Amino acid sequence: MTPSLKSGMCSITMRHLGADQVVALAVRAELAGIEWGADGHVPPGETGVAEAVARRCADAGVAITSYGTYLGMAPFDDPDLPPDELGAALDSAEALGAPLMRVWTAFGVESDAREADRTAVIATTAAIVEAAARRRLGVALEFHPGTLTHTAAGARIVLEGCALKGGNDPLRTHWQPDPALTQAEALGELESVADSLAHLHVFTWGPGGIADRHPLSDGAELWLPALTVAAEAPPLSGDLPRYALLEYVADDDSAQLVTDAATLNAWIGQI
């Protein structure tokens, strides 16, 4: 296995399981790490929960790759947001021992949005990066339809906009394929953000998206070259390993996750 690229999973893939069950499943599937989701297993601000999850992972020999938050999806002045959402997420990331925090950009603001809206997204993201840096936490963007990071070009707007604001630890981005693109187009998107890559969210979906899930093995034509790009991308800060994280397997089935993990581990072993 290439030392710079390891296999893992997003805990939200098995949202219906408890945290202990998720860890046990990762061990069974021979996955090296877990990105823990803030919308279920490790809620923001519940630091006791985060500490318990961290202990369980340490005991099982499973790394914590990142803390998957939804910071940035809505503006900080949204009245529906809980007070000090940012501080609560940072507290949990620290208690979890996550080296990296995954954040979103505002839903509904894409690359063709008004300049004022794009500027606001950059300002919000930069504020998160600055606050995280004070706690020695890295930040990576969710690469997702319906947001400014729907495309590599849009992600670069945020990455470069935040870089202009300074900071010692650069903002990075996760990457996942858009099922609406051809395999060649999706691979081109990954190559365009490879210099700022954090981790991969790995799945094989058909044109119907999340409702059209397939065994990971069906996506070999995309994933074998994509994993190679990820393995050869510039290293993360502190020489942290990069992870290919399984997400949203067919039927939310534990057995399918184990099968997909075997496929993923075999592919990584070929790099």
TrEMBL record:
Keyword Isomerase: yes
Domain of life: Bacteria
Domain Xylose isomerase-like TIM barrel: 24-162
InterPro entries to which the protein is assigned, alphabetical: IolE/XylAMocC-like, Xyl_isomerase-like_sf, Xyl_isomerase-like_TIM-brl
Key words, A-Z: Isomerase
GO MF term list: isomerase activity
Pfam families: AP_endonuc_2
Name of the protein in its database record: Putative Xylose isomerase domain-containing protein TIM barrel
Protein's organism: Candidatus Neomicrothrix parvicella RN1
Lineage, highest ranks first: Bacteria, Bacillati, Actinomycetota, Acidimicrobiia, Acidimicrobiales
